[in-house]
Amino acid sequence: MSHVDPTFDASAHVVAPQRWFEDFQIGERYLLPSRTVTDANFAAFQTVSADNHPIHYDVEFCRAHGLPGLLAHGLQVACFTAAGAGRFPHEVSDALIAFLEQSSKFLRMVVMGDTLYPALEIAELIPQRTTGVMVMNTTIHNQKRELVLTGMHRYLLRRRPS
Q1: For domain 19-158, which CATH number applies: 3.10.129.10, 3.30.70.100, 1.20.1270.10, 3.20.20.70?
Q2: In 19-112, where do the E strands start and end?
Q3: Which of 40, 67, 77, 131 pairs as cysteine with 62 (C-beta 3.0–4.6 A)?
Q4: Are 94 and 51 in contact (CB under 8 A)?
């Protein structure tokens, strides 16, 4: 007995419809999943970054310096703005050429146990001949409704093929 379904079409199995540079509008928002920063996040980031300053990994050091807990590294916090956590990369599967640039401003400390709420918003669309640059503003709020990070991403996208 065959379990092959002749009606199934793998090419129709898409998460989001394909979009091209000209399909986007300024003001569109991408809310990314909220995440609670855990010891696993700290351990993974330490492994990747090789940063071993005790402010990120030694609770007693943090207490002795008046901190409420382990302080998340700024780059660790910025990672939570990765567009790959949401629907955007699925929408630009064939249009994305490059992630060009990223910047971040760290406004408040993030400690283990904080829950972060990242969002991206299209701020500027710069058309070029066959491509365009999309500028997204990034924000992260914590569980106290405090803005902990602002920043920007730039993406190079293809225009719709003729």
Answers
A1: 3.10.129.10
A2: 29-31, 35-36, 96-106
A3: 67
A4: no
Res 92: pLDDT? 96
Residue pair 36/115 in contact (Cβ under 8 Å)? The answer is yes
Residue in 112, 94, 107, 120 with CA at minimum distance from that of residue 146: 107
Residues 21/133, Cβ–Cβ less than 8 Å: no
Task: Please report, for the chain, the start and end positions of each structural domain, with discontinuous segments joined by +.
Answer: 19-158
Distance CA 110, CA 69 (A): 9
The pLDDT, as a whole number, for residue 113 is 94
Kindly state the tokens that stand for 72. Answer: 């998340």
